Amino acid sequence: MSDVNTRQVVAIPYENITITDEFWESWLRAIRENTLRSQYEQLATTGCLDNFRRVIGQSDGKFEGMWFEDSDAYKWIEAVSHTLSRTDDPELRERLDDVVSLVVDAQADDGYLNTYVMLEAPNLRSTNLNMLHELYCAGHLIEAAVAHHRATGEERLLAVAQALADLVDGVFGPDGRDGTPGHEEIELALVELYRVTDEVRYLDLARFFIDQRGRGTLKREFENQAEQAGDEDIWDGARSEFFEDGCYDGSYAQDHAPVVEQETVEGHAVRAMYLFAGVADVVLESGGTKLFTALERLWEGMVDRRMYVTGGIGSTHKGERFTEDYHLPNDTSYAETCATVGSIFWNQRMFLLTGDTQYLNLVERTLYNGFLAGISLNATEFFYANPLQVDSDGHALHDVDPIRFSNERQDWFDCACCPPNAARLLASLGDYLYARSASTDAIYVNHFVESEVIFSIRHTDVRLRQETKYPWAGDVTLRIDVAKSVPFPLHVRVPDWCETVSATLNGEELSVDADAEYLTVDREWETDELAVTFEMRPELLVAHPTVRADIGNVALRYGPLIYCLEEVDNERPLHHYAISETGKVEAEFEPGLLNGVVTLTGSARLPATEEWEGTLYRLFTDTATVDAEFTAVPYYAWANREPGEMRVWLRSVLEHD
Amino acid sequence: MSDVNTRQVVAIPYENITITDEFWESWLRAIRENTLRSQYEQLATTGCLDNFRRVIGQSDGKFEGMWFEDSDAYKWIEAVSHTLSRTDDPELRERLDDVVSLVVDAQADDGYLNTYVMLEAPNLRSTNLNMLHELYCAGHLIEAAVAHHRATGEERLLAVAQALADLVDGVFGPDGRDGTPGHEEIELALVELYRVTDEVRYLDLARFFIDQRGRGTLKREFENQAEQAGDEDIWDGARSEFFEDGCYDGSYAQDHAPVVEQETVEGHAVRAMYLFAGVADVVLESGGTKLFTALERLWEGMVDRRMYVTGGIGSTHKGERFTEDYHLPNDTSYAETCATVGSIFWNQRMFLLTGDTQYLNLVERTLYNGFLAGISLNATEFFYANPLQVDSDGHALHDVDPIRFSNERQDWFDCACCPPNAARLLASLGDYLYARSASTDAIYVNHFVESEVIFSIRHTDVRLRQETKYPWAGDVTLRIDVAKSVPFPLHVRVPDWCETVSATLNGEELSVDADAEYLTVDREWETDELAVTFEMRPELLVAHPTVRADIGNVALRYGPLIYCLEEVDNERPLHHYAISETGKVEAEFEPGLLNGVVTLTGSARLPATEEWEGTLYRLFTDTATVDAEFTAVPYYAWANREPGEMRVWLRSVLEHD
């Protein structure tokens, strides 16, 4: 258990970083050129923007969409703001200005802003923390405002956010009423607002909401509302998630116990991630040993027992939630794209709290696999759920919800949380790449993305250029360029998937400890070249034996990437393939495939299909097997060609030595 | 394709047979002493009998139960009648008389009888063939009446059945209105009624209903009823099964095509089995080459592509129906107990049509496995669905319907079709054991059940005594005792699971063809002893490679029995066991276990569970396996001890030679 209490590390902001990476730049360009434009069209055509116009009196008709629809606009504002920080785009900037103006104009004189409540249910204002998502939407507004301010320097959206935050702060708190949001999000947003405004009230309010969780306020609200429920109750379905056998069970919204006492990650995975990210933010800014200890315990339980090999979380569509330890079905998994975004948020903050690479390793695993699989290669179509196995005709849960469970991505959803969430994370990728110690001169290279970063050590500017073909090869060259020589320790993360590391400094071999979290070079830097090689080769993973869904199966890994078989690349139904030779999987870069990927090919044993005519069951001794080659592609790249079967966990007939 | 057109074989009725078998007698005694009494209590307490009293005016209140609740009483009457034919029981007989009197008194003057319609919806009489199950209930009444007449010689219930059948015959037919039942059952019942009354009108009506199927009458009825549907529409859920994407899809009730044109078994499995049994009955009595050809085609498709290794049918709870070829999930299977009853009905009739043992083999497989698993060892608790795999906490579909999907049997269900259906089949077991040729003197020994049968060949009485410990051993001794010598061929079925057969006649070795359907001894019989040995040993089955759920797995078979692992007999979670040695499975009879069963033990490879602390995914090369022994019990006997995990299909790491 660490005795860390506040921040150990500070992220170097994306303003100081230029990304030139071939792998990631294609995504960032697609976000800028396609995704944010098409998402604007969605906001315009689904009624999301019209809801703001209706509040202003510029549009007729009733509120449209989900009751938390405002948050889609806010996430879009955030994504556009991050994007414009990197590359200006007058057309996008104009749209951003229009949307921001709508939000500014829609705010009530007292600071209130939620178009659903203002248009449809003004009497419900601040009455229903369980279901109404007012504070959730407020959180996304605050995050958008902070990003907009950061990117543009403008104050107008930040002023809206502050006015709303002030209103909320006036209602809740030690001097106001009890309460905590049914859907977390505002906690981390309030800390962001504190960081940009220095108003400690916002930090205190975030801590208040966190401390109130699990202490009965949501339960009491349900009890008080029992008699109010009527026909117009639009959130009946969601409400049922709070009850188990008719009794209140707050675990859906992490309200089953105070955060400091929670033993395991429970309930709706996105809510859990946003909460724990917010808790980490509060600890980052103002400490909290008990909270931090709880975070470590919750993190370990999630990573050790409730996480897909892709970094995906949430094992069931029912409640979009965590289930039980080691319950990780592949075909009925949920692994929501938004939950991976939340997981990356939380892990990044845990890294800032500790400097431990285990959190960076998980950011990497999630980013390259569970998160990226949610987005098409052209970044305009999305998965809500990310199963690790689908049949050729779609998904085991296709009849539950053919839009969310499918082997074809969608450009939007009725509940459209994921697409703009994916966009805002990708657009802020630069924030995750480099960091520096909060107390020393140490610099951290967190992720392997071709880029240039500028920072200053003891008033000397340092330019660090990273060159790499990651994730296709494990060679990373770091070129340091300084005006005058300057000493600092440079920590380069050694990825957890890597067993063999070598490095040279200006061509001279370095002695490297591959078991260390970091490859650290502490010296007086001049114009130097540090070349690191993380040996990358195809590997076979197995899951804990208690995971029923994965028993006897293996997953293919190459560097940070988890692989899958797709129907289009393989002749037989995918369940036929049983990996049969450990060391014989070959990796090859194919530039023309899926924007360029390394494929893995290898040998498998398959059932012979002859002599089955007219028979459904036969003696084992009357059957035979044949050998054939399989081809695997990175999991993130699946479902970008013709729809078909997909499988991450493959049968194996491997023998242990 | 056979050119069989009508009956080849006649069953020797149970009146000529005395069962003395240790295995089956325990079930038959339990039925008589416990089951039929406890089921009477269910009929009395759930309102089923009160519904008849309400019609008569002897009871108050509204109709109780499902709208086809009458059928439960009728199936109980049938089961009691069969049982009393074997062993008199004054208390049971008294209850039977009371229930029969209620039914007799409840019939309307014009012959109509359906307590739901009479009490709740007299205006719906004969208006709703799709959903109302009037003809389904009528069918069960007729079957009950025929059995009651057969067992008691009484006419009073038969008269009720005839009056109702006459009423139905007056409404439907070439001279009446079009129509066919939404839930088949009356077809086979009308043929039974024809057999006992010689009224060819009933046979013609059965053929009419069969011919009307798939010709648009049910579809038109839905169209005409569209405007009638209202709040009191109790069968909304069932109605939805008739529609696919808003369009009528009659496959749920085998109404997608005329029977003679149907290519595959479709829809609700119980309905399909009752229909095809009824079709076979019509062909048995009056021929029909096209119908017979359709039955052969449908049967082959079912057996080759849509049947569990237990004989269970129906792959999903949704619609309780067949799905697609080779879609045979083990944990979400339905395999309804009633569907196995219907399958046994159909297969027995196919045998009578052809004399082919493939139908007897399937009766055996279904009877000893898929059917018997539906009944507890004491015959008082039942499964509705019969999955082939359940988790330790119940079933994958437990949250869909914890009563029907469970690892604990229930004594009754809201929809209580299965318990009395199981009782009536067991109580009439004697009808399935022996048969004779319809045109020659040949005698058939169909099943291996210790018993004595008396029949007459050319006016000479023959007594055939069968001695066997089947299914625990494959030795069958047939002792023939005749007043004077008489020639006839004796056909003894060679079970399809058996590869090695030997036989002696009066101690002298016979030459036997193990590939033949029958071991046939054609001679002038005197006082003779034919001893047959079907070599019984543990075997491993594999499923067709297209069956995704079973790939890489094996099922254990011993003689006619399919085996399973239960949690209580094995130390590790069942998914850990991978069968590793083909020839080393040992069979041993354990008299004290589960009323006496042969258990199978063998060697399996399991994942080593050490060194997993704090890890969810590891390199394959860092893990290891251990060897351990597994213990399997017959599938039919599962869930008779503490509730827990169960698995039929076991992982395997067997190597082909």
Task: Explain the overall architecture.
Two copies of one chain form a homodimer. Chain A is an alpha+beta fold. Chain A has three domains: 423 residues, Glycosyltransferase; 102 residues, Maltose phosphorylase, domain 3, CATH 2.60.420; 116 residues, no CATH class. Helices cover 34% and strands 19% of the residues of chain A. In chain A, the strands form four sheets. In chain A, strands 2-8-9-10-15-12-13 form a seven-stranded antiparallel sheet, with no helix packed on it. In chain A, a hairpin with a 2-residue loop joins strand 17 and strand 18. In chain A, helix 3 runs parallel beside helix 16 and helix 8 packs parallel to helix 12. The longest helix of chain A has 24 residues. Chain A is globular. The two termini of chain A are 36 Å apart. The interface between A and B is large, with 48 and 48 residues. Strand 22 of chain A pairs antiparallel with strand 16 of chain B.
